[in-house]
Amino acid sequence: xxxxxxxxxxxxxxxxxxxxxxxxxxxxxxxxxxxxxxxxxxxxxxxxxxxxxxxxxxxxxxxxxxxxxxxxxxxxxxxxxxxxxxxxxxxxxxxxxxxxxxxxxxxxxxxxxxxxxxxxxxxxxxxxxxxxxxxxxxxxxxxxxxxxxxxxxxxxxxxxxxxxxxxxxxxxxxxxxxxxxxxxxxxxxxxxxxxxxxxxxxxxxxxxxxxxxxxxxxxxxxxxxxxxxxxxxxxxxxxxxxxxxxxxxxxxxxxxxxxxxxxxxxxxxxxxxxxxxxx
Length: 279
Description:
There is one protein chain. By secondary structure, this protein is of the alpha/beta class. It has a domain at 102-160. The protein has helices at residues 22-31, 48-58, 89-115, 120-128, 136-145, 152-160, 175-184, 201-213, 228-240; strands at residues 7-11, 36-39, 61-72, 75-82, 188-191, 218-223, 244-248. It has a 7-stranded mixed β-sheet. Helix 1 packs parallel to helix 2.
């Protein structure tokens, strides 16, 4: 494949916080003209088998992936693992530990919601009834469905966002540990949506330096709805730190602002991460 083809290396199914099943996601991507797609659910590879089966039916190349939560200097950072082996025993053990952290966090959040006179136990039960890895997005949806928040965004603004009344921080594994998991599973580690973190320019440079030193090799230069100015800034950082460039919609829902595969052209100054994989 060539760089001109439609490539999307960051998407989510309902195995984490997306709304489409893995096969439905792949079918939608194929209909949108995507020719190479990575399914990168949060802390799980559960959807990859179904996605791979559907990809073969649609003539689409599936990149096995995952998005893993990590910690760097008390900041939560999301690291994409691309071209990972989804059967890697070490990776599967590590992702089970991530799921345990997520469930523990969910219980603590719901306990705080109970103290706020909301039905925390019922909300937790509702999240537990949903298959897949739990995320705050699931809880936000439950709050909206129960009439406790007007919108998904309002649930985060009032209860679930950082610094809000029911927010619970998680001490995720260190960045270098997560990069090690990905590399140990034969994958490529890429920092997801680097412009989204609340970091100064200097801190962002230190993050990328530490990431590269740990064995990370790529940066998501073009992500979702980020503007051209973000892509140019991220491209310059990728070049500065010797990182490959990746592109991804961070797709979650068909009605959202980040449709599959749209406007994901990597700036020419960056070497595409997919070039070494025959795409």
